[in-house]
Amino acid sequence: MIYLNELRIGENIRQTVYLCKTKQQLVSKQGKSYYSLLLQDKTGTADGKIWDITQGIEHFEAMDYIKIDAMVTEFQGEPQLKITRLQKCSEGEYDPADYIPVSKRNIEEMYGELKGQIASVKNKYLNELLTNCFINDKDFAKKFKEHSAAKNVHHGFMGGLLEHTTSVTRNCSYFAENYPMLNRDLLVTAAMLHDVGKIWELENFPQNDYSDEGQLLGHIYIGANYISGLIDNIQGFPQKLKNELIHCILAHHGELEYGSPKKPALAEALALSMADNLDAKMETMLELFESTDDNGWLGFQRLLDTNIRKTSK
Amino acid sequence: MIYLNELRIGENIRQTVYLCKTKQQLVSKQGKSYYSLLLQDKTGTADGKIWDITQGIEHFEAMDYIKIDAMVTEFQGEPQLKITRLQKCSEGEYDPADYIPVSKRNIEEMYGELKGQIASVKNKYLNELLTNCFINDKDFAKKFKEHSAAKNVHHGFMGGLLEHTTSVTRNCSYFAENYPMLNRDLLVTAAMLHDVGKIWELENFPQNDYSDEGQLLGHIYIGANYISGLIDNIQGFPQKLKNELIHCILAHHGELEYGSPKKPALAEALALSMADNLDAKMETMLELFESTDDNGWLGFQRLLDTNIRKTSK
Amino acid sequence: MIYLNELRIGENIRQTVYLCKTKQQLVSKQGKSYYSLLLQDKTGTADGKIWDITQGIEHFEAMDYIKIDAMVTEFQGEPQLKITRLQKCSEGEYDPADYIPVSKRNIEEMYGELKGQIASVKNKYLNELLTNCFINDKDFAKKFKEHSAAKNVHHGFMGGLLEHTTSVTRNCSYFAENYPMLNRDLLVTAAMLHDVGKIWELENFPQNDYSDEGQLLGHIYIGANYISGLIDNIQGFPQKLKNELIHCILAHHGELEYGSPKKPALAEALALSMADNLDAKMETMLELFESTDDNGWLGFQRLLDTNIRKTSK
Amino acid sequence: MIYLNELRIGENIRQTVYLCKTKQQLVSKQGKSYYSLLLQDKTGTADGKIWDITQGIEHFEAMDYIKIDAMVTEFQGEPQLKITRLQKCSEGEYDPADYIPVSKRNIEEMYGELKGQIASVKNKYLNELLTNCFINDKDFAKKFKEHSAAKNVHHGFMGGLLEHTTSVTRNCSYFAENYPMLNRDLLVTAAMLHDVGKIWELENFPQNDYSDEGQLLGHIYIGANYISGLIDNIQGFPQKLKNELIHCILAHHGELEYGSPKKPALAEALALSMADNLDAKMETMLELFESTDDNGWLGFQRLLDTNIRKTSK
Amino acid sequence: MIYLNELRIGENIRQTVYLCKTKQQLVSKQGKSYYSLLLQDKTGTADGKIWDITQGIEHFEAMDYIKIDAMVTEFQGEPQLKITRLQKCSEGEYDPADYIPVSKRNIEEMYGELKGQIASVKNKYLNELLTNCFINDKDFAKKFKEHSAAKNVHHGFMGGLLEHTTSVTRNCSYFAENYPMLNRDLLVTAAMLHDVGKIWELENFPQNDYSDEGQLLGHIYIGANYISGLIDNIQGFPQKLKNELIHCILAHHGELEYGSPKKPALAEALALSMADNLDAKMETMLELFESTDDNGWLGFQRLLDTNIRKTSK
Amino acid sequence: MIYLNELRIGENIRQTVYLCKTKQQLVSKQGKSYYSLLLQDKTGTADGKIWDITQGIEHFEAMDYIKIDAMVTEFQGEPQLKITRLQKCSEGEYDPADYIPVSKRNIEEMYGELKGQIASVKNKYLNELLTNCFINDKDFAKKFKEHSAAKNVHHGFMGGLLEHTTSVTRNCSYFAENYPMLNRDLLVTAAMLHDVGKIWELENFPQNDYSDEGQLLGHIYIGANYISGLIDNIQGFPQKLKNELIHCILAHHGELEYGSPKKPALAEALALSMADNLDAKMETMLELFESTDDNGWLGFQRLLDTNIRKTSK
Known about the structure:
Mean pLDDT of chain A: 94
Order of helices and strands of chain A: EEEEEHHHHHHHHHEE
Structural class of chain A: alpha+beta
Strand content of chain A: 15-25%
Helix content of chain A: 25-40%
Oligomer: homohexamer
Distance between the termini of chain A: 37 Å
Shape of chain A: elongated
Low-confidence stretches of chain A: none
Number of helices of chain A: 9
Largest interface: A-E, 40 and 40 residues
Number of strands of chain A: 7
């Protein structure tokens, strides 16, 4: 396949598959209907135009994978694909990993780590909760493994939610070691569950965009509400422990202005919010550094609210 | 009965009932155990001391109603009750309304108004939800009618939650009239439900203090979670409508820094937050004005972040 | 007439009238003088160019109505009018309502409502003030009826000031009903007068832009100063009432950082600021929803500081 | 006279005059009426009690000067005057300068400086405005010379408004020299007029407290409104100059959150706000240093938002 | 010895040693000189008075250890020592650990850990810097081991600076493991050095109060300046590495408003600021929990900006 | 020479020298290497392209002065230089003043003023410090005279640091006169030294961009550290005076959020921060006014956080 960042003006491509991220039907100034598409693969995006929608164009929708013939033209300095033939693909005709960003780490390996983290939780109610959530519910586990942790930054790729979750859990496990005041079981459980609401806040790939439910309710509420339901199915789960765990979920953004309806009031809630923030900041910096070959100052970064550069070797 | 704001230094009181708000067992500098109490009736509070706990003092706990004999002494310019005899009261020996603040409005009358507001909701799912919540669940209805809307300000009295709820609902009903863009049924339903979480956030009277669950989770999450459960028991309730209603509950404080995990994203959510804020501010001012005979400037008011005075006639 | 949003590339228009919003005389890179215009009608704006200013072009200025012959060409994807003939129009040759945004509501009907609101004010001094201002001063009344309430959002159209004023007054009238503590006459009077300073802060249509005085002084000071002058012509107007009314005007933005030199210190001032804010927010949302056919999420809205969407039916 | 900071426990004072700052009629715990007074002279304040109000006590009000016989007792470590005889004084029986804080500088000398500053203004309209305001209006001039610039800090003493005004004008005069871009006449005029509203915002001495008008309207609006009226009586005063001058008055607090309804938009307005702030900060520090003999760290100072100390010699 | 929290009203103490934290010479209302002292041991503080300073009272100063005879009286509910005899102690007559708060951990053990952390730094310049600072400079090492990390919270006890430093270094060591992007040597070195400026910002025990230099310059500047000097004595230390290390010191408070003159711009600076914040927050919570036997809600905590409670077991 | 703001589309320029501010080697869509340059002279900047890098193009780097032949073409409405011949210039072939912004004031004249200001400092230690810094160290003096005070605004031109420094010192000198509390020697010394760190924070012209050291450490720390070193070479310089002077440097931005690690705690530190702020604001306004011929409102200015206009004459 020819990746979108390799297109050369003037060449023709044939039978090549891209993901159609968006599709708009427009009317030209001359009064004729045409399609304007946004094509995507894992290297980026490109505009596509279908000026004649009556010939050789199968029916398709946004988010379909499409196989096209096209000429590479130039518009405002960027390549634009003038599509002359289009077929909708079936699963199996393409490898999704070519079209959406994926974690560099092996997903099953990370899932194995998560299972080990679950095994380390000794409190029987918390252990049962985690087992029910991440292991017994195969459907949930599949979604959790494939989900991203964000639309863009940070961990905005397939497996990103799992990668972020295991890393935050590792942080919390270390924190419990250095600060014996912390209740390890509560903290580590909250770490594993803190972002499960993102499964519903963000649509599955290839969309990976905010769902309507996500926009309205947010992953903090969605996750807390989901965990609350799981707990209600566990006989004898102590009410106080439930409230403490849900508190950790609600407070994990650390401050009201970051969307937590409660500030951390327990040591574990405070520790979780710091473990989460640490992982978010480190990954954000890493992604910024990896997005460029520049070793100098990268300019003001809105996400970190400052100018940054890589440290010298 | 002799109200606490009528005590005169030097007099003796006999067989008088007060609510024992707090009870501490302390040791005097001379090494002797004694009790320090905070007594309450609807006119205010007073300190009580039991220097000899071995004679004539029945067993009692904080939040019990107690019948006492005492001498009114003075400590640092305030009356202090030196208690010599104490019996614990049973229900029926006192009228709770003498000991805790109550709404000036008739509770059943307000409940009648609420039922009228429910009847005005035409959407069958929303109507069923409200009916199940406020009318069919007698236990809930009883609690809702007797609850306050706050520990102190505003509406921090028995019936306060009901008074605040009907007033906010009235505001929303008017808003829907003046702004036809608003979906009246959604807005009015959200108004009636917006603070139901306070039933669990604040303990019942006479405590009326934050519960452990309330401190950890807050009435916004508790309420949204409760309503979500009620909706799940209504067959065919549209998912989108559920999300919109829960959004209104989550967003009703208007800003993240006021504890809403989401800012209002729907016109109804925005309208509800303003209707709630209006009622809170008006009642806060009213309570401040009613707490004094002063017609001049009352000094800086933390709750309104400014100095205020009553308007001249 | 052909509205600017109906222009088709390639067609010629003849003897069509537009408002010339701005006019610049420029020199081309080849050293030749030409005019660059911004044309406007109620459907929007378009660029116009007069490459040859020596032939068939009458003298005109910005804000003149002009009758033109032109060819519709394309520049950077937008239609551009290449003007070959231009005459300046006299009043009567066009209907202003075709060229500037106007309220959807009937202006005289709204003015009738305002007169009714005035009639409801029982305090004789306040009633006289309102009558002098809005009814007896014909010149003022004319300007008030035709003015907008903003350069852009919200109510940035002819009649917008009147529409906003009557709506805020309606809100205040309702508030006085639900909150008997409020002095209805003072509140409703302040509501009608709160934005009169906008008559001088914004220039008349078709400009509707900030005046020099408006930029320097702002409508809050201008309005308070104007009302103060009107009051001084009313014999016996109580000084305290004057101060309270002026306070309501000064404080109607609610917070110092929104340009009020005083925070609301009277219940009526607080209520007015909330009535004004409510109307502003509701109209802003309405205008945003009406500006698009999209029923989904509209993206981050700076004016509301959040992402929004229309509520589902 | 015996100053209040020289009272010794146990001594008796006779026929000594103090200012009675406040007077409350209270009822003792034993049911008897008594007066509680706050006495003031320029060295500070002391409590006074009149336990028997029926014998030897003439009728008097708060803010009267009173001549008393009293015994100096001790209450909570502070001297308290037990008053047994009280006569109300007439003007002439006391020197106000003994009872209220006064500027260390000579008032007429400062007024002379102000007249010199007026004479330096060459623009005839501005010069006429200043002359009308500060020189021709004898009544205004008298009040201006005796007024303070604040209730407490800074310049909260008789002559303080004049002292502050001449100092800010001196600053502005220097600024105009170092920054030739500045319009000296406009700047210096605005400096002299910037705080005239304080004459009505604060009551005259001995009260020197916020007036009702001051609380409701503030000195910024009051002053701008007053100057606007003066200008309207000057034939031919240019409208643009008027707006620019009023803008300087409105913007002189520099930021909306400090009560200016407009931020400085002209160089002179910006310069004035900085000249005013400089004088306020320097005087605040000076007053803090003069209030103590301590040469070390004075602790956190709310007015300067930091801990401060005098510089070593 | 009798600890201050064990004093009983009415008893006499003899030949007991306390630290005299402050000493004031005052004049009684009756005109007689006396001393007012603040006495301290590790259990708290108590007031002391020497009414007769002429008999049996040796010369002493604040911060001396004094051996006293006294009677325990009561003042405003607290014990007060009426001192009748006083001798100044020499070193050896008391154990400082009885008078000032000390770390619960063994200081030499922590210092051993620090040496191990230094040994783990492979970069020869950084290793030399750390060795010169913490090991070769015996005088510095002694001060570093005995210093606190704060006047009050957190780690406001002898050995607190060392305890905080080793814990933050442990955090950073873990961070470098979980986030391979981090330059371990730079990060761990910065961790050990980040608070060395506190040695001069806070006076040695028993004072442990801000020094004049500390108030004026702060530990961030003092530390950076000190490290800069040390580096200049190391031949060949790379300039870029020096700048990066100093940057980490300057930025370790994370935000300008917390006193860092630069925001973290390197990954290691960001990581250090989070490791420091984590340790500060955890220790603050621990100290709050240890200061009370209460297992319930502790009320609003200014240092954490929220109400907190211990987690249930 | 032909200045960049005088280029006309279509003409050819020959043997003209510009400063090459930036140079990028790019690859065209057709796969061919070319250079994209940013050319600069004192009138502004222009794009340059070298499509054929193999013919007539000498080796050069960014920040070289280059002599070119080129054709003036148009790209997106702006002139673009199509370069066909390029030679690198040696010093002497051009006058730097044609290529970089320079102060309008004479540098030696300003330096003379600075020497006069030094002479006015009577304290012998401070005088010696200033003499060592600005007069005896010729190398430093040369750099100080040629440096700017900013990358862009304000005083972002050659000599700008000197111009700003003398003006701030003049302000401080005046302040010391109007506020006798101020220690003139300390204040005026701090004024002269306050921005010396900028010599290392910004690279020399023609770059005038932030250095790596500047980004990491900032001119406040760099300057304080430098002055500290100078003082350590002066025998007998009092430690307290050193701390006070360094404090003034550290605190001269006035607020933590503006990058000062300490708030002004001495009167001189506060005065310096205000003198600096005044000069910055006045120069910013002046530069904005001088950058346009427009006498009307200039629109929102981010640097002043408001819309501004020139005052009418």
